[in-house]
Write a structure and sequence with these properties.
The protein has 136 residues and is α+β, with helices and mostly antiparallel strands. The chain has one domain. Helices cover 11% and strands 26% of the residues. Strand 1 and strand 2 form a beta hairpin. The N and C termini lie far apart (40 Å).
């Protein structure tokens, strides 16, 4: 048991050059910590943001949209947490707004604005936003 390990681990980081990706099947997802609003409003809720990709040099957060197959994974997570895959309500929402500006780090991003919730829609949804500490 102590020597157990994944032969193909989902976490792709390596010592000295950590990344925040998890691979499921042939798909890679980026996990980031954030808040659901501007940095000046410290009373906003904490969230975990899952993106398809991001600009590591700063500027654009979650620039790409998810494909139909990738949306299935997001809907499964939404169902596991909220009991139903409804991206417009609950603790898990679909961010369907424009790409967000942010200060990107290895694990944390501060979005310039809030999130725009909506249904899980291929080629429209840019991020899954999970309100892990309290509901929106």
């Amino acid at each position: 048991m102590l020597n157990g390990r994944f032969t193909d681990p989902p976490y792709e980081g390596s010592a000295g050059s950590e990344t925040n990706t998890i691979t499921i099947g042939g798909y890679r997802f980026y996990f980031l910590a954030s808040r659901d609003g501007p940095a000046v409003n410290l009373s906003k809720r904490n969230v975990i943001v899952i993106c398809k990709d991001y600009d590591e040099n700063g500027g654009v957060g979650c620039p790409s949209t998810f494909s139909e197959d990738e949306i299935l994974f997001l809907e499964a997570l939404d169902t596991a947490i909220d009991g139903v895959a409804d991206g417009s309500s609950g603790r898990v929402i679909a961010h369907n707004g424009s790409a967000q500006g942010g200060n990107w780090g290895d694990w944390f991003v501060m979005f310039g604005g809030g999130f725009t919730s909506g249904q899980w829609t291929p080629n429209t949804t840019r991020a899954l936003v999970y309100y892990f500490d309290r509901k929106p």
